[in-house]
Amino acid sequence: LRPGTSGAEALERFIVDEKVAGLIVLHNGVIRLERYGLGHSRSGRWISQSVAKSVTSTLVGVAMKDGFIASLDDPVTKYIPGLRDSAYDGVTIRQVLTMTSGVKWNEDYTDPASDVARFYVDPVEPGMNATVSYMRKLPREAPPGSKWVYKTGETHLLGVLVTSATKQTLAEYLSTNIWAPYGMEQSAFWSTDRTHHELGGCCLQVGLRDYARYGQLVLDGGRINGRSIVPDGWFEAATRRQADTTSADRGYGYQWWTMNGGAFAAIGIYGQLLYIDPARRLV
Predict the structure, then answer these.
(1) Beta strand 22-27 with 46-47: parallel, antiparallel or unpaired?
(2) Is 0.90 topped by the overall pTM?
């Protein structure tokens, strides 16, 4: 803080300087602070970008609890047959969850030839899911489980996995298992690809209070009406460092960024952040 500046004044200056559209803080499940900017309001929705990855990860856990997915050590090709005879042969669901598949991918948003750019424009094989069509062409660069590389395309694959296993769209499955029973305040929207499937790695549009509610659900271990929607120990594993990243103070779990000290976060490319600190009961 600058001399003579209060915490409230510093916060308001931060919101203006950093172009913050919304900020909410829960402590022990109670709203302690709620602010909006850029003309945004409680009734609006804001795009998640990669915060959605952590939601898709949770839906994998829900599908396991429901019996649609037998094990994280199952090969991903068991549930997505279109990946057979590709670099994903021998890759497990766990390795896709932790982005350690060993499949080569370029996430450089400044490179128009990167995979994250070409994914959305390369022709889709007729009759095939757009995600599977692109991902099955990628080469392998390392043995499965040996190398971490951030890959939005692989979270899109997790969305395909949940849809294939449950025979429900990702949006339907989210609505039935989390959004409706947990009492979210607003409907959410999930952008779809060129074959009309939800993009599991991004693009979920949600109200600020519902982002906070989702964080509280995770903090409370995924319990709704006294019942856990995920297998025992799911969030303990999902939010623990499962893979080392390029950052010394940040690891990767099941589509969650893990911090030294026990906190964890879902992070989107343009400043979206869902930060959870279990020790302080803070979202």
Answers:
(1) unpaired
(2) yes
